[in-house]
């Protein structure tokens, strides 16, 4: 069988885009060695356009804010399509600082947030503890951020898989090693590690950190995505301990605690440049728990359930890459780094637009693959065409 669109990667980005494409009338398939069990499984599910704001990333911050605006509609439609809840909670976040230097860093971040028109209210240490009584007495202050929410990432993955199954979309267990190409040079499908070949009218690479390992494409076609390792710890038994997400700085190190409706808490996350290493290291887990305990001492009483390590898809500017590549018939939706779940609904909308021959939403303009190519030349050294270099005819419905 030849599908209209083949999605390489079964994380939240690939699943969301495949579901939306299926709803638009396309025959789709998702290919992944273990669907839903990559970075999307390890994630905390924070939808944090405000507390993820960083200096020098104003264009990305605008994208994150727009991405957050799509979540309420997306959550409602997905829950209706799957018949299952996804734990979408508009609970807000408290950002806290452990010591004076941390407080200065939080104040600097507040200055940036206010300059960009983002909603965040400066709080004293006492005011932080009034919102979250479990915070440590020594917390020096912080901010309330009502616009940062959360979703249960694992329930989200399950709902996407159920929605795809209800639409009779295919999921294929396998590792893609190569994009196949026809006589004209266009992408025609993929080849798996076991030798199986799958055909498609269009291929969309949503493989996260694994994107750069896919072969069969001309040099320079794929965006520069690298793995950024992150350790996460899951605890259980926290009923009523945390009414909302806590994000803190502990002697300059970031730490977050995300409470779930079932009483579990996700604690994260480290950020480590270790290539494709997914091993769980005792030192990283120890440091993470130490910082979390410094902010919320009550977690000592919780049950340790999981210690995990995942690989975020990082990029040189921390922004995603979404669009047609220079290889006709091949699109990418990858490099979302810390914001894959936040940007999943907007990215899915963009991918459906691409497959229909339309431009991506305005917020994603400037985040296409062409930003990684030389400004005046294409791969072959000839002057670059002013046209969208990967543009193709709409995929037939």
* Global morphology: globular
Mean pLDDT: 93
Helix-strand topology string? EHEHEHHEHEHEEHEEEEEEEEHEEEH
Derived structural class? alpha/beta
CATH topology of the largest domain: FAD/NAD(P)-binding domain
Major sheet description: 8 strands, mixed
- β-sheet strand percentage: 25-35%
* Total domain units: 2
* CATH superfamily (homologous) name of the largest domain: FAD/NAD(P)-binding domain
What's the Cα radius of gyration?
21 Å
Number of helices: 9
Alpha-carbon distance between the termini? 15 Å
Q: What's the CATH class of the largest domain, please?
A: Alpha Beta
* Uncertain runs: 375-392
Helix content: 25-40%
Q: Any guess at the CATH architecture of the largest domain? A: 3-Layer(bba) Sandwich
Q: How many E-type strands?
A: 18
């Amino acid at each position: 069988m030849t599908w209209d669109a083949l999605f390489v990667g079964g994380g939240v980005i690939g699943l969301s885009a495949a579901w939306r494409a299926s709803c638009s009338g396309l025959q789709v398939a998702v290919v992944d060695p273990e669907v839903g069990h990559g970075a999307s499984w390890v994630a905390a599910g924070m939808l944090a356009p405000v507390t993820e704001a960083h200096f020098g990333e104003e264009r990305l911050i605008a994208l994150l804010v727009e991405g957050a605006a799509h979540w309420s509609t997306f959550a409602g439609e997905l829950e209706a399509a799957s018949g299952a809840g996804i734990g979408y909670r508009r609970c807000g976040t408290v950002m806290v600082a452990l010591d004076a230097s941390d407080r200065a860093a939080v104040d600097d971040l507040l200055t940036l947030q206010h300059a960009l028109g983002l909603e965040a209210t400066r709080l004293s240490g006492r005011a932080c503890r009034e919102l979250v009584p479990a915070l440590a007495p020594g917390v020096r202050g912080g901010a309330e951020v009502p616009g940062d929410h959360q979703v249960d990432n694992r329930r989200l993955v399950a709902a996407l898989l159920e929605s795809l199954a209800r639409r009779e979309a295919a999921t294929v267990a396998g590792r893609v090693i190569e994009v196949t190409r026809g006589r004209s040079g266009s992408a025609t499908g993929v080849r798996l590690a076991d030798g199986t070949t799958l055909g498609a009218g269009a291929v969309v690479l949503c493989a996260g950190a694994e994107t750069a390992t896919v072969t069969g494409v001309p040099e320079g076609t794929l965006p520069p995505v690298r793995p950024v390792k992150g350790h996460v710890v899951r605890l259980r038994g926290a009923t009523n301990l945390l009414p909302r997400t806590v994000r803190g700085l502990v002697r300059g190190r970031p730490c977050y605690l995300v409470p779930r409706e079932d009483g579990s808490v996700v604690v994260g996350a480290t950020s480590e440049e270790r290539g494709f290493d997914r091993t769980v290291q005792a030192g990283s887990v120890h440091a993470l728990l130490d910082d979390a305990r410094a902010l919320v001492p009550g977690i000592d009483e919780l049950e340790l359930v999981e210690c995990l390590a995942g690989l975020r898809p990082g990029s040189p500017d921390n922004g995603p890459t979404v669009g047609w590549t220079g290889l006709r018939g091949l699109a990418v939706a990858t490099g979302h780094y810390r914001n894959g779940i936040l940007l999943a609904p907007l990215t899915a909308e963009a991918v459906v637009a691409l497959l229909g021959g339309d431009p991506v939403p305005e917020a994603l303009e400037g985040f296409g693959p062409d930003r990684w190519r030389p400004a005046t030349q294409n791969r072959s050294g000839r002057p670059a065409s002013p046209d969208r270099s990967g543009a193709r005819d709409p995929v037939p419905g």
